[in-house]
């Protein structure tokens, strides 16, 4: 087995699998991050604790084995640890208790429905996300030649009801006025940066992620290091960050009594009640208001898309195009008039 780097700078691990003539290669990207991922993978293969796809072909696999191979594959691709842990939690707590009684190739659609029933009290969006995770694992098995059956091949996502966003800037200000100090600061950071709320982005921000000289803050990607993004700091918010950092008791930008904040649902509900907000509001609605306000005031669609961390501008346009006031009329004015 060897660790190497291609002429284009891509790091890889090459190893032999019993029964195969040609060695296997796994690639991990460029730079120091790619080199570190390759070194970790090499240690795992040496230890014998990690399945390799080629060595499992031809075996009868159960879901626990297939899921482990999938998680190892994600790790080899440099996927974020917290994301992999969330998948492992779904597998261990919900998929395996129902689907581990027989090999994957013998699972049926009725088995999948038993899994779906475990999420009956969840929102449609959450059910769709959890079941999509299971389908991805099953498709991975087929694509890698490990299994031949996907009992979810006919499954389709349930249609999600269109959510109406009612939060206004004035109402956000009312909520801010009634919020507890840690929530008030979290809402201010969310409004300035437009991050995804919760532990995926907002509560993960550390003081070390801020470059005061470059006037930017790094938002850590939820899947890979390459999905990190830099958001410019306004002079006002830069000053606010410096003030807060002087009082900080932990490494995290948003904290409570020196500890990382992981959930503000209770304090957010209290602030909504105190502010007299009668319609449903989620923390995510602040991010939506962040984007829609900028677009309604003429901000560039691609710039807003980059700030939000969307993978494509099309994704942003599909959600926020209605905020681009006057775009249709401007488009019509671009053509010549028939005389």
Residue share in β-strands: 5-15%
Domain count: the total is: 3
Report the uncertain regions.
none
Looking at how many chains there are and whether they match, the oligomeric state comes to single chain
Strand order of the largest sheet: 1-2-3
- Overall helicity: 40-55%
CATH superfamily of the largest domain: Intergrase catalytic core
Rg over CA atoms, rounded to whole Å, is 24 Å
What is the correct CATH architecture of the largest domain?
Orthogonal Bundle
How many helices? The count is: 14
Order of helices and strands: EEEHHHHHHHHEEEHEEHHHHH
Q: For the residues shown, what is the average pLDDT?
A: 87
Strands, total number = 8
Main β-sheet, in a few words?
3 strands, antiparallel
Find the structural class using helix and strand composition: mainly alpha
As for the CATH topology of the largest domain, it is hpI Integrase, Chain A
Beginning-to-end CA distance, first to last residue: 75 Å
CATH class identity of the largest domain:
Mainly Alpha
Instruction: Characterize the overall form.
Output: globular
Protein name: Integrase family protein
Family: Belongs to the 'phage' integrase family.
Pfam family, one: Phage_integrase
Keywords: DNA recombination, DNA-binding
């Amino acid at each position: 087995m060897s660790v190497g780097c291609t002429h284009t700078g891509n790091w890889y691990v090459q190893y032999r699998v019993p029964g195969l003539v040609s060695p296997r290669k796994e690639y991990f990207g460029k730079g120091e991050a790619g080199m570190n991922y390759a070194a970790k993978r090499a240690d795992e293969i040496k230890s014998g604790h990690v399945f390799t796809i080629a060595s499992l072909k031809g075996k009868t696999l159960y879901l626990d084995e297939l899921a482990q191979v999938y998680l190892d594959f994600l790790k080899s691709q440099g996927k974020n640890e917290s994301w992999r842990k969330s998948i492992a939690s779904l597998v261990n707590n919900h998929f395996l208790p129902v689907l581990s009684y027989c090999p994957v190739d013998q699972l049926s659609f009725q088995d999948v429905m038993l899994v779906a029933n475990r999420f009956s009290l969840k929102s449609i969006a959450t059910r769709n996300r959890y079941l999509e995770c299971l389908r991805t694992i099953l498709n991975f098995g087929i694509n890698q030649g490990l299994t031949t059956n996907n009992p979810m091949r006919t499954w389709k996502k349930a249609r999600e009801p269109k959510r109406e966003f009612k939060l206004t800037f004035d109402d956000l200000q009312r909520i801010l006025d009634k919020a507890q100090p840690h929530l008030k600061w979290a809402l201010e950071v969310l409004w300035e940066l437009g991050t995804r709320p919760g532990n995926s982005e907002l509560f993960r921000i550390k003081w070390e992620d801020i470059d005061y000289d470059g006037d930017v803050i790094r938002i850590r990607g939820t899947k890979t290091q390459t999905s990190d993004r830099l958001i410019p700091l306004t002079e006002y918010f830069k000053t606010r960050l410096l003030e807060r950092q002087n009082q900080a008791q932990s490494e995290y930008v948003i904290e409570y009594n020196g500890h990382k904040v992981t959930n503000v649902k209770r304090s957010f509900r209290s602030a909504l009640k105190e502010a007299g907000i009668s319609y449903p509001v989620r923390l995510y609605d602040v991010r939506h208001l962040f984007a829609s306000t900028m677009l309604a005031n003429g901000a560039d669609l691609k710039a807003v898309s980059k700030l939000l961390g969307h993978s494509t501008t099309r994704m942003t346009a599909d959600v926020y195009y209605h905020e681009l006031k006057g775009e249709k009329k401007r488009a019509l004015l671009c053509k010549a008039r028939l005389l």
